[in-house]
Amino acid sequence: MESPKTPRHDKQLSASSCLMENLLGLLRIRVKRGVNLAVRDVRSSDPYVVVKLGKQRLKTRVIKKDVNPEWNEDLTLSISDPNLPVRLKVYDHDTFSKDDSMGDAEFGIKAFVDALRLNWEGLPVGTVVSRVQPCRQNCLAEESCIIWTDGRVVQDMCLRLRNVECGEVELQLNWIDVPGTKAA
User: Fold this and answer.
1) What is the 3-state secondary structure (H, E, C) of 15-50?
2) What single DSSP character describes residue 182?
3) N or C, which terminus of the chain has less Cβ within 10 Å?
4) At 102, which CATH number?
5) Which stretches make up the C2 domain (predicted)?
6) 107 is in which domain, residue-wise?
């Protein structure tokens, strides 16, 4: 006699528990603002940002007619492999045609995740615990400091966009511990 098939929700539960086993935590990316973004419409652009990590894809809202937009929007990614780069693309929203590319960038999070594993309790607020230098792999426009502040580790970064004539995007990384994960 054949055994009964596993109900669909049990398969989903086992897939999510497998994900939880590999999950290190959540990376909150605050997309702060764009600086001197490329003009794609008549005199301006309607930019938005798409952030990708593996199969995860998140996007900000569209800011109308602004090449120096301020999003101040949080996008949260699940992290299971700190060696995967985070990819970022900026687009100009068009109503009647395909959205135009306004450049792309990528950055690694390994140094940030490594800094989380150390105990920084007792350090003064604002202490730089690590520095990431610009290189071809990370698209940093300048040195990015990983800082201990208010009982947590944060990293501010400015990314120079590639494949476009001009533009930078400013981000801040924060970590969210999830109970029951490898990092918690």
Assistant:
1) HHHHHHHHCCEEEEEEEEEEECCCCCCCCCCCEEEE
2) S
3) N
4) 2.60.40.150
5) 7-125
6) 28-176
